[in-house]
Design brief:
single chain; 215 residues; alpha/beta
């Protein structure tokens, strides 16, 4: 379920197979799409506004239905592992950041579906730009982000690393902490308790891009 112009735009740009796109006002939706993404060409069917809202789970200018891809090429950067994330919007924001930096994949543990419509909406359709899946087994070469770790500014983040981030409330689980080859901390000012999950991922991936003078 792709709710909104930006979700549809990104999905099409990265090869989504759209089964249908609907709007209560196709002319206005297409005009908006042309203003933000003149490279994207789609057909939009008219349906009642109540149906658009039902499909989107809220207000939306248009809604697209697409098949989940069997394969999405990964980027060249580290893999992001989210350890039992709970907030759908934060999970979507991480996917958006990971796609922007060219991460290899976004993996998550726990019960939250990373393809939940609210996550797809928060990610602005960028599930089609980076592999996204839920996993049960923890991968190797884990670098865990934790306040007790080494200062990120002293760490060279390797391309093939799996960067693990804990849940918004509890941080890294003991299982992930025990599996990590190294713990790394993002610098933070005294008396500031934490960063948003997507912000932490963005800082870590920026540190990767800044390695060796940038990419």
């Amino acid at each position: 379920m792709l709710a909104g112009v930006h979700a549809v735009k990104h999905a099409v740009r990265f090869g989504a197979s759209l089964e249908s796109v609907v709007s209560a006002d196709p002319e206005a939706a297409l005009a908006l799409l042309a203003s933000v993404a003149p490279d994207v060409r789609i057909e939009v069917d008219r349906v009642p506004a109540a149906e658009v809202e039902r499909l989107a789970g809220g207000r939306a200018d248009l809604v697209g239905l697409a098949r989940r891809p069997d394969l999405v090429p990964g980027g060249t950067g580290p893999t992001i592992l989210l350890d039992n994330p709970r907030h759908l919007g934060n999970l979507g924001a991480v996917i958006r950041v990971a796609a922007g930096f060219g991460a290899r994949a976004v993996l998550s543990t726990g019960t939250v579906d990373p393809w939940h419509p609210a996550v797809v909406r928060a990610a602005a359709g960028l599930h089609f730009a980076v592999p996204v899946r839920r996993v049960d087994a923890l991968p190797a070469r884990l670098v865990g982000f934790d306040p007790a770790g080494d200062d990120l500014r002293t760490v060279a983040v390797p391309d093939d690393a799996v960067l693990a981030f804990g849940s918004e409330r509890h941080g890294l689980s003991e299982a992930v902490r025990a599996r990590a080859d190294r713990l790394v901390a993002i610098p933070i000012r005294d008396r500031v308790s934490s960063y948003n999950l997507a912000t932490s991922v963005a800082v870590a991936l920026y540190a990767w891009t800044a390695r060796d003078g940038g990419r």
